[in-house]
Amino acid sequence: MNNQLLQLVRKHYSIIIILLLALVLRLFALYEYGLNLTLNSDDVGYTKSARVLIQTGMLTYHQIGEPTVHIMPGQSFLLALVFLIFGFEEVGLYAARVVISLFGITSILFVYLIGKYVFNKCTGLIAAFLLAIFVPQILTDNLLLTESPFMAGMYVLLYCSLKLANERKWSYFFGVIFSYLLCLMFRPTIALYPLVLLIYLLLKKYPLKMMLKQFLIALVLLLIVLGPWWIRNYIHYHEFIPLSGGTGNPLLLGTYQGSGYRYGEPYDDVIKKINKEHPNISAYENMNLQKEAAIDRIKLWWKSDPKSFLRSYTIDKTIKQWNTSFYWKEIFGVKIELMQKIHKLTMVLATISMTLSIFLYKRSLSENVLLFGILAYFTVLNNIFFAFDRYNQPLMSIWFLFIGSIISYFSQKTKSIFRLRS
Q1: What is the b/e burial string over 27-65, where b = at least 16 CB atoms within 10 angstroms of the residue's CB?
Q2: Origin, by domain of life (predicted)?
Q3: CA-to-CA separations, 4 to 1, 7, 121, 216, in angstroms, rounded
């Protein structure tokens, strides 16, 4: 047993060192900043939601006595499980942050596996190392947000998708389904990922008969897992709510991005008007009214200036969501201004790397399409609603994979040149 463990360490020592480094950095951040490291935003909301869930058995978010459909249940249930074991107080909060950090470590491992599988081992190690030391991610892995669990699930999903397309084993199919459903429990934005996967499977000439069979099985599993959620939502709100009912606010906020602020009433006035005219409605009903207001604003904007509408919902919002990094609290003495400069440089390098990768790794063209497809999918989705750098935090590792692939390619070419000369 000891010999097997020693052989395992020797074989994979590089990634083990990176994972240990990542863990040390995240635990050191937790030690250094403790429970004071908070956004006082969604992280506090999820913590309260978990506590109320344990005390009352009701999933809430905005109001303690009001069942919510604003969020998916994953984060609240995850934190509730930790609190059941370690309690609500300081120990439980520290334990919850350690669990979130472990999700971050899982993401690093699967980013490495993806890089190794699609490109080569060196690419995987570079991407994993970049993610391990990426300061905004270290911060995020110390916050009680959905980003880290969702990100871990997404990279397991991506890895299993790659393996399924190439090896066509049922174990990878169930890995895809499990990780997809896990992601759904934390963020509904992953819902249309199967369309991206379908394009990739068709490029890989995946057997249509097997695809159809697996689709039917996936549909049954989806009904089994989401069925209780649908029933619960119908009992409380008397309508079919497939995932969450919290899209109204981001849709409304998105109409004020780009040139949208020029059309219609200011955002604060819209919210005040809704609250004044409907003082006793539920948070879900409030969201629906915000959605109606957003649609009215979109119609007005399109009628007034379709060119600025199209520019804002394509170019402006894309720049908005990728131009900055989600880094709201400074840690390790890294200033926000410096981090944003590093981010801009990273995005330039990543865009160049992605373009080069298409030509330099022709054997991985389909895999490059899948990686780019995920970036494009979430970019378009966020453009439709609210372009926000936080929503793209889980996607940075894909850019790191492209950067790693080009560094690896040219380092190998350089080594080959030196060997020839010697």
Answers
A1: eebbeeeeeebbbeebbebbbebbbbbeeeeebbbbeee
A2: Bacteria
A3: 5, 5, 22, 41
Helices (H), 119-207: 121-133, 135-140, 147-167, 170-186, 193-203
Question: Would you state the structure tokens that stand for residue 275, as one six-digit string?
Answer: 């609250």
3-class SS of residue 60: strand
Token duo for residue 117: 């599988």
Q: What are the boundaries of each domain within the chain?
A: 45-421
Q: Which of 315, 231, 300 is nearest to 265 (CA)?
A: 300
Which one-letter DSSP state was computed for residue 346?
H
* Residue 134 near residue 22, CB atoms below 8 Å: no
Residues composing the chain: 422
- In the structure encoding, which two tokens stand for residue 90, read together? 């300081």
DSSP at 343 = H
CB atoms within 10 A of CB 13: 10
What are the counts of helices (DSSP H) followed by strands (DSSP E) for the chain? 19, 0
Q: CA neighbours within 13 Å on the CB side: how many for 312?
A: 22
Which of 216-225, 251-260, 336-345, 390-399 shows the lowest per-residue confidence on average (mean pLDDT)? 251-260
Residue 349: count other Cβ atoms within 10 Å of its Cβ. 15
Residue 5 pLDDT: 78
CA dihedral sign of residues 53, 57, 58, 63: negative
* Closest by CA position to 262, among listed 234, 232, 321, 304: 304
3-class SS of residue 63: coil
CA 236-241-244 angle, to 5 degrees, is 100
Q: For the residues of 270-307, what is the DSSP string, one character each?
A: HHHHHHHH-TT--HHHHHHHHHHHHHHHHHHHHHH-HH
In this prediction, residue 6 carries a pLDDT of 81
Tokens at residue 402, please? 């492209």
